[in-house]
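Quarterly update, task 2.4: TZP-bound model.
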Amino acid sequence: MFSSKTLEKYFVLGTQNTNDEENFFEVLTEALQGGITLFQYREKDHGALKGHEKVRVAKKIRQLTAQYHVPLVIDDDISLAHEIGADGVHFGQKDGNIVENIKSASPLFVGISVSSMAEYKKIKNIQGIDYIGIGPVFSTTSKEDANPAIGLTGLAPIVQESHWPSVAIGGITEENLASIISTQVNGIAVISMISQSSNVRDTIKFWNLLLLNKK
Ligand code: TZP
Ligand code: MG
């Protein structure tokens, strides 16, 4: 069900990253049509929906992603993930006890964020993690409490060291995408490269082209 290939083109979005709900579903639909391989619903930070509104939107997302056979990950909300039948859950370092979270997330797959080699080493013996997200690689305005950017020199050694599949995140654009791909990371996760794109299909086509050149 979960394979490292799933991480390849990982799109992350919450309604706070778009103008409104209509725009959110427009962008998500274009991204699904364009060929993203994984979607994370990250409803967080200023302007995020809460309670019933969040559940309502999440149910629509579940329907839409299922239509395109794209797995759905929920950021930091285990009960929502179970309620709507999501495929995975993602946790940051500040999202509570990792071992407890992994237990409650079962049988869903689990991703954990790390922003340094020290953070990777702290979790590396924990059972039940399916992938790690590494970043922010470059500086980002899409996350309020983002750690300092680690750059390619911070990213590459963690990719090498990780015994789990990994995905790079943070400040990734069409300009620096090739440099990220060259680290051999399994996947790339983006918000604004897609949500702010003037042509989502072209952006994903370009992404595919770079991935083809890698192989
Ligand atoms: N985690 C680390 S950076 C980030 C998250 C959720 C935001 C990524 O957004 P963008 O627009 O791709 O920099
Ligand atoms: Mg988080």
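Highlight for this quarter: The domain at 4-213 is CATH 3.20.20.70 (TIM Barrel).
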